[in-house]
Every structure is written in C-alpha cells, then in structure tokens.
Amino acid sequence: MTWGPYLYTTSLLDDYGLADVSNAAEKVKQAVEQQQFLKATELWSITETVVEQNTNGVNFYNILTQEPDDKLASSAGENFISLQARRHIHPLHKQSLSELMNGPIRKKLAIIPQNVTWGGQAEKVFSNMAGDFMRPVVDIVDQLLMAGVNVTVYNGQLDLIVDTMGQELWVKQLKWDGLHSFTQQRWTPLDDPAAPGVTGAFYKTYKNFGFYWILKAGHMIPSDQGPMALQMLKMITQQD
C-alpha cells in the first residue's frame, strides 16, 4: 500500500500513476483480508506490472536504476508465477554472485554435494511458496521478541519491493511490550565507513529489537553499500 506514495514522493509517479498503483494495491489488500493468499500473489504481480508501466520500468530492487525492456512484460503464455520468478529471482543471480557462491564459498563450506549448485532450486521454491508470499507473519516476529530472540530489521533507502514506509507500518503492528519504548527513542546516525563524516545510516535499538535505515542502498545492501552493511553486521553481532 506504500508503493504508490513512495514512488510519488520520489518523482517516479504522476497523479495518474499514483491512482493506478494505489488502486491495484487496494485489490491485493482486499484479497489478503479475505485470506485469498494465492489470489493476492497474482494481484501483486498485476500491481508490479502497473508500477512498471507507469514508471517506465523502475527497478524494484533499487529505484535509481531501470529494468531492461525485456523484463517489462510477460511473454506469451507465461503465468504470473513465472513472471514473478523472472522479476525476483533472476536479478539475484548476477554472474559475480554465482561465481562467488559456487566457487570460494562452496569450497569453504566443503559440504555441498557435487550435483547441487547455488540458486538451482530457487524457481521451484518460489513456485511452491506462491500461496505464502502475502500471508502476514507479524505475529511470528512478536513470538520471537517475546521469547527473547534478538530481532533486527534493516532497510535500504532506495528499495521498492520492501520499502521503508511499509516496513515501519508493520513494525507499528507489533504487540511486543517494548514497542512503545522503542518508538519513543530517537534514532542515532552512523558514519559511512567508506566516507568518514558522511552519514551512511541511522539506527535505533531497544532491548532485543533493532532497526537500521541504510542510506544510498536498495534491496541488496551488501552489494550497494558493502562497508556500511559490514559495520551493521558487526554491531548486530556485538563485534563493534
């Protein structure tokens, strides 16, 4: 529901586009409220098509980049699951990442069977989870927090697929007894390790819950802002 407002405030939608995207998103919301989760996933796919059409192909993983034209429309006979897989799995399988995971990381782990390659199972998993994408799981986060498990949410400023506005809305739905104290805190800026004196992120923590706002990064924070991602990871694991 925040996609339209987010894209509108970043100059990627006009008034017509905002109305189109918001209307499409409303249909997804209605399907979720009716617990028609597979239908909601299909309507999510349609909403993404509406976004692409109105933004001239914004990249869901970083709004400052653009999708290639061959990814903007479904192929003849392609169902919505295949289209979503093409949108959301293929971008993850960059050549350099595949080489890293199937090369040095595979060797380091020393347990991967020869007939298994990194990423080879992704589309099957994606297809089999089609009815799960739109299921709310805020209650599970509540269970983790109440059990004392450390939970960290982090978000890239330029991410659309999981935009920060949407993240903050579901966090406000938590029933965790520490939520009020968390929201009352002011955030703390963090210097970008790669550019001292320049703000690279903000963060806020209370007890076993933390939230990091990572600047100048999309969905793939480690590849967009590697040093900042490493700094965050060290803080989460209390190494720094």
Low-confidence residue ranges: none
Level of helix content? Answer: 40-55%
Distinct helical segment count: 11
What integer is the average pLDDT?
A: 91
What gross morphology would you assign? globular
How many beta strands in the DSSP annotation? 6
Sheet of most strands: 4 strands, mixed
Following the backbone from N to C, one meets helices and strands in this order, namely HHHEEHHHHEHHEEEHH
| Secondary structure category | alpha+beta
Classify the beta-strand content into a percent band. 15-25%
Gyration radius, in Å: 19 Å
- Output the strand order for the largest sheet: 3-6-5-4
Give the termini separation: 36 Å
Question: Can you offer a commentary on this structure?
Answer:
The protein has 240 residues and is of the alpha+beta class. The chain has helices at residues 3-9, 15-33, 37-55, 80-88, 95-109, 122-128, 138-146, 164-171, 179-184, 221-224, 226-236, and strands spanning 58-59, 62-66, 151-156, 188-192, 195-206, 209-214. A hairpin with a 2-residue loop joins strand 1 (58-59) and strand 2 (62-66). The longest helix has 19 residues, at 15-33. The radius of gyration is 19 Å and the shape is globular. It comes from Xenotaenia resolanae. It holds the Pfam family Peptidase_S10.
